[in-house]
Batch of 2 targets.
Target 1
Amino acid sequence: MKVWDVRGVVEEASLSEKLQEAAAALQQGGLVAFPTETVYGLGADATNEQAVRDIFAAKERPADNPLIVHIGDMSMLRQVVADEKDLPAPARKAMEEFWPGPLTLILPAHPAIAPSVRPGMDTIGVRFPAHPVAQALIRLSGRPIAAPSANRSGKPSPTTASDVAEDMEGRIVGVVDGGACTVGVESTVVAISDQEAVIYRPGGVTQEQLAERLGIPVVLDPHLSTPTAAPKAPGMKYRHYAPDASVHVWWGDGSAIEGALRQFCEQHVGERIAMIVPAGWSVSTADGALVWSAPSSEPYAAALSRELYRLLREFDRAGAEHILVVGVPPQGLGAAVMNRLQKAAEGRVNRV
Ligand code: TXA
Ligand code: MG
């Protein structure tokens, strides 16, 4: 697997030069992983049916789970959506306010988009990522790029090029290494009509931000609050984001959480435990647990969002049997982080 290292390359001409080979691979139907501000994507030409099928094979992804199509500038929008002129006004507004950025809009699909991108659906998810490397690569390839997260299905999404390599070595042409992702959780997936916006997957753009800017009601797809409801985004029904270790989450009152962590350690003496805690927490653990505490320089939710997937992978490699996580209230970016933690923990989320 090739690695194209573009870390620290900002000048446009040298970035283009370093991305030539990766862009050519995409044009020829190859699979190339690349950084975005949310997570690394596993890219292929969205108009090439065989290339898109290869994505599903490389990821071992269920065929009924549609892919997000990425554009490198606004002029590419007309290549991916049908009736570009007739989009609902609030959807336009969302593009103006939040693109480029961590927001995916569900829109009517252009007929040139390969059928496997949108199995049995007449819509596609469209995103214009903010990452300069993603933008440059997509523009150079001249194609809309279908890209799910570049993990094997069920695993935590990759936020570094080495995470991608861990899952995709031998399965793809290569990965563009642009360093660590800054948001760390995937984009918000939202369907917008003239009347309302429905969030299918919470992510980097928050419900609160959408409500403030769009001027229409912004609601959550019922499955996000009612476990028995069927999700509108097919991907949300699968076990997801899960490391090999069992994950346990507590949120709420700080001293109650510390008590719960201590009790868990007492009840699992001799087992390998890892912890993710806010800045300044000192949890005394008998058997020398692996502890990651957040930096104090930023809100805990932002640090947790950026580092969560990387830490889940790191603790797996270290052989942890249990990963204990201090969660956050499910508001703002916290809604996205807690949604992912809910899945990683398979429901073992406790409010104390
Ligand atoms: O941040 C992100 O969104 C990353 C980066 C690479 O852009 N991509 C990503 O893709 O997370 P993926 O495939 O892991 O998740 C796409 C989600 C899935 O839950 C899928 O079901 C949903 O978007 N989705 C895609 N197209 C859809 C459609 N037409 N209708 C409903 N849901 C859709
Ligand atoms: Mg994914």
Target 2
Amino acid sequence: MKSEILKMLEEAGDYISGQTLSEIFGVSRTAIWKAIQQLISEGYDIEAVRNRGYLLKKGERADQKEIYSRTSIQTALDTEWLGKDLIFLKETDSTNTALRKLAENGAPEGTVIVADEQTAGRGRRGRSWVSEPGSGIFMSFLLRPEFPPQRASMLTLAAAMAVADGIYEVTGLDCEIKWPNDVIFSGRKLCGILTEMSTDMDTISYVIVGIGINVSQSEFPDEIKDTAASLASCCAGPVSRVGLIVSILKAWERLYSRFLMTDDLIYLRSDYQRRLINVGRDVKVLSESGDYVGISRGITRDGELIVETPDGKEHRVTSGEVSVRGVYGYV
Ligand code: BTN
């Protein structure tokens, strides 16, 4: 009810009486008053005037800081199914870990967890993910696809496209993707994605897509200070975390429904390759059987990276680390 009240106040741009709200929602005026008090405690500037009702004042917060809460996200969210079950946590160890627990207990497809801070944010290949409060997006969403596990690798590539599309919509920055799913701008990493799958025999029980985006950090720890960047530093202005989450979830719904509708992934492949920084560049593959260098020729229809070595052989890389010459990690 809270986010619906907020939406109504936003749209009205005028006073709405407690009586009107209580009739619309079929609850007492005290219940409305309580919901309003909660919104105020979340940071919304709502004025209550006797005989007139409640008014949401806009742009008058002294600090001009965006409100980052379940209500603010839910009010702005216009997706069809993704994020209908939305959990917002001030702090958690890792949104992927928290969502996995819910998935094991039967949480529905489309459940989303967003946290303002992670105390044990996880990256790919056992690394950690810096997750300070107030500065980044740390979110995970749950899928329960019915296709075979082999197709799931495309999901992680599609997630990078959803992020790149969302960033473009909100900031106008046209990002690139470093295979499989780092979203980068000007050679620096803005976003990392950790996709985790649970299978049962030959079927997928669930997939968790975890997205970490550097939004407004002005500095990073020494280990990543030469390779990471935040969106705010790339576009020299504040970026709305709420707006970005909404755009990314919406972009995901669009991409995912296209992905489910057809087995022909050509469109997904060409859209992806348009942003793929690896194509035609020297790359270094760190594989378990030894490192090698070659030129990347794009991706296969299953999302593997094609790397041509100097002897003319084509290798299909399914996992592992691939660095691109000139982009962080391989100079
Ligand atoms: C990478 O190493 O590039 C992947 C980083 C993924 C980080 C995100 S933040 C939200 C979700 N929860 C986690 O613990 N990790 C992912």
